[in-house]
Amino acid sequence: MMIWWEMIYIYLGCLLLVLYYLFSKSNNYWESKGIPFEKPFLFFGSMYNLIMRKESFFETVRAIYKKYKTPYVGIYIFNQRHLLVRSPELLKKILVKDFDKFINRNVAANESVDPISFHSLFSAKDTTWRNIRAKMSPVFTSGKIKLMLPLMKECGRDLTEYLTKNNGETLDTRNVTKKYSVDIISSCAFGINSNCLKNENSEIMKVATKLLNFNTFVRSISVLSFFFIPKFVDIFRLTFGDLTSANYLMNIFKDTLKEREERKIVRHDLIDLLNNLKNNETVDDEYKFDDIKMAAQAITFFAAGNDTTSSTISFALYELALNKEIQDRLRQEVRESFDKVGDFTYESIQEMIYLDMVLTEALRKYPLTTSLNRVVNTDYTFEETGLKLDKNLPAYIMIRNIILIQRNSFQNVSVKDLLY
Ligand code: HEM
């Protein structure tokens, strides 16, 4: 008679065979399309080195990117098929000319599990994305940003105070710029003084650090699932951002909104702008704001705006420290501008061309995003090559590689040559 553990081995063996069959079947996709592809390995797809923690995602994809010289390469991430696009012409089609077919990003969105990320511009899909984008675009007009400048200048004063107080000390630049960025975004998006520069134990600073921290095992599996195993998001009811932090920000948003309405406070910040958008909605509006949808926009700005801004400033400061002549020239431009007007105004900042050059160069040299991804929302053919993309196929665009190629053509040009 068979003993119980023999039965378990047989069941496990059968299960592995079924899984092997399923993965092998889906792993034939690129071969059937007749384009170059990176041979998949079982359920790891093309990501064996990443899963074994031998390489980062960027290193794995960069190795594939460099290995092929074709306009695109088929890759597998687990058993998901992705098209790694290399040709600049095809990238332009995806991101510009035929953008209406590629508006969706390859990230899971489940309204009942995670309404905040569902209504965020990063994860929203199709008409939801179009509707939110149409509503939010006016928020970025120069007139609206100009009205927020006094709020930003208040944080600038706190930064000056902080630096004066710590004069002579060794400071962690990244930490200071993060405090400064969180103070600005909290003020402009949530209407609150987070006081990160004034208070070492600011609650909002903790929230900003935790919201998109994917360093723990559970959080890293969670974010991986959002991009590559969307079924796990539904099954395990995963949220993109840390739930406690997102709820904390949601409550701040709701309390501030309530206070604004009760006390008729006007601050010209994002809360005011969102509230005005809501109050001006008509019965014909396809997408109507409620508290959750409005808070989702503020939380998106908070998450998208703080690390990007602080890292960019940190990299720029690092380059300025290395290049004294550039630092001196920039300081001269800022001083002259201030002396002319006696203040920093929206217009005077726009006129600081050298400042713009320094920041643009910092972004070119240290691009913060490694890749963009887009999902095609219809069956689509690249006329140039005849490749047919099936609806819902994700395409990967390695921004860093494009910049690296560009960098190679500037190989003998130093930052100094570009900026001086
Ligand atoms: C140097 C600073 C920044 C960098 C490098 C940066 C980079 C990016 C990138 C690469 C994307 C994705 C674009 C795509 O998928 O095509 C993006 C989207 C976005 N960013 Fe930023 N960002 C920065 C600052 C900010 C700030 C300060 C905010 C808000 C206050 C913000 C809000 C957003 C939003 C809402 C989206 C989604 C747009 C949409 O889908 O329509 N970003 N950003």
Task: Characterise the protein shown here.
- Keywords: Endoplasmic reticulum, Heme, Iron, Membrane, Metal-binding, Microsome, Monooxygenase, Oxidoreductase, Transmembrane, Transmembrane helix.
- Helices cover 60% and strands 6% of the residues.
- The protein is mainly alpha-helical.
- The chain folds into two domains: 1-102 and 370-420, Uridine Diphospho-n-acetylenolpyruvylglucosamine Reductase, domain 2, CATH 3.30.43; 111-302, Orthogonal Bundle (Cytochrome p450).
- Helix 15 crosses helix 18 (353-365).
- The N and C termini lie far apart (85 Å).
- The structure holds protoporphyrin IX containing FE.
- The site of protoporphyrin IX containing FE has 13 residues, from helix 15.
List the helices and strands and how they pair.
Blueprint: H1 4-26, H2 29-33, H3 48-51, H4 57-67, E1 72-77, E2 80-85, H5 88-97, H6 115-118, H7 126-136, H8 142-165, H9 173-190, H10 203-211, H11 217-228, H12 230-235, H13 243-263, H14 270-279, H15 291-322, H16 324-341, H17 346-350, H18 353-365, E3 372-375, E4 380-381, E5 388-389, E6 394-397, H19 399-409, H20 415-419
Parallel strand pairs: 2-6
Antiparallel strand pairs: 1-2, 3-6, 4-5
The structure holds protoporphyrin IX containing FE.
Quick summary:
Strand 4 and strand 5 form a beta hairpin. This protein has 20 helices and six strands. With 420 residues, the protein is mostly helical.
